Amino acid sequence: MSINPLETLGQRIKRLRLEKGMTQSELADDYVTVSMISQIERGKNTPSVELVQHIAKKLQVPLHDLMKNEVEQMETAWKHQLAKVYLLTKQPVEAEPLLLSLREMKELSQIHQIELTMELAECYYLQKQSEDALALLLPLVEELESVTFDDIRILSMLHNTLGNVYYQKQNYTDASYHYRRAHDLTLRFPVFDQLAARISYNVGITYQLHGHHGQSELYLKRAYEFFQNTEHIYEIAATLVAKGITYKNLHEYKLASESLTTAAGIFYAMNLIQESCDTKVTLAAAVIAKENPVAALTQLEECLRFYETAESYADLLLVYSQMALIQLAASQFDAASQHLCQAAAIIERCADDRSPSIGVYFQTHARYHLLVHNYSLAVDFAFKAAAAFASIELLADQVDSLQIACDAYHLNGCDTQAFQTAQQCCEILKRLNGRSDS
Known about the structure:
By secondary structure, this protein is mostly helical. Among the domains are: 9-61, lambda repressor-like DNA-binding domains (434 Repressor (Amino-terminal Domain), Orthogonal Bundle), CATH 1.10.260.40; 232-310. 76% of the residues lie in helices and 0% in strands. The protein has 23 helices and no strands. Helix 12 (194-209) packs parallel to helix 14 (233-249).
């Protein structure tokens, strides 16, 4: 979009409207009056950030482009509100300079300083600059808690954001700690609101990752009960996915199927094809495969085509591994081996070597070699899987992998190594349950 630096915001809106062949009434679209649009175009009125966002959508131009050359002349409150909109619409690159300039202002109140720091940290989090986010958040939460800061809502938001950052770093232990701290604070909220529901969801997810499925169900259920009575459709679907996985882990397959099927449909209706595909993979591998392996493999094949087009290698690796697992359960060893070979061909292309898909791939290979009596290779792959899961603190999956090594040692007559590996599993389980002797 061409930008004239001498053009006012109102003039720019009028020019773009005319270029689109739109009337003022079409631009207003019942959001505001035609008179308001006329006043804005003539420079007689200043639109709110929300109205500018509406106008940008109607004109089909990026909000950032529409607002060029306006930022320097903005009032502080208006500039801050624009930064909030950028964060809400996941445009952190545009939000960052606004927040940095606002933080340089003198005589900011303590609450304003805290708010800007949290928003800048959110900005870094959205850009996957987790260390920069932690550098802002950790000193802030330490300072506020040392002086018994009493705004429980701000403190809960701080801990929740810290949990998000650690989750992004795949440090699930620290993520779980901060999510639980945030949740404890929400218990003092006058009502269970949207923030409390999101925190409850996050706690449920980390309990799920650590294998505490009964506790996971409780937190996810409470989050879902809140979201299902709101218009937050994405949150409803995401919570249904999490509930479906937990139900599967609790062997409640009918409930798992209902949750995952509904979630996949919601994502598809929202045109979120990646999320819909991811949910279908979980549904096929965790639920459908129990009763109809052929149907599960067919659904996974369909998802493969999407991931191939998207060049999503970690997802491809996961699907090939899941297909091999289904075939191993049916003693179709040649077919399973073929899918593992296809997975091996792309594993080097998985840029993120901390992806859980890596661990699933190694674990599936270990199960294959255990079943075809290649016990030495089963041990090798089992330890590779355990190391992959340990690197991202998925301790329950680490134990599952070590159990394969334990079985392989025992079947190969290496009972001493089997006993030592079993002891290692016990120590990890103690850590998982917070009862480590160390």
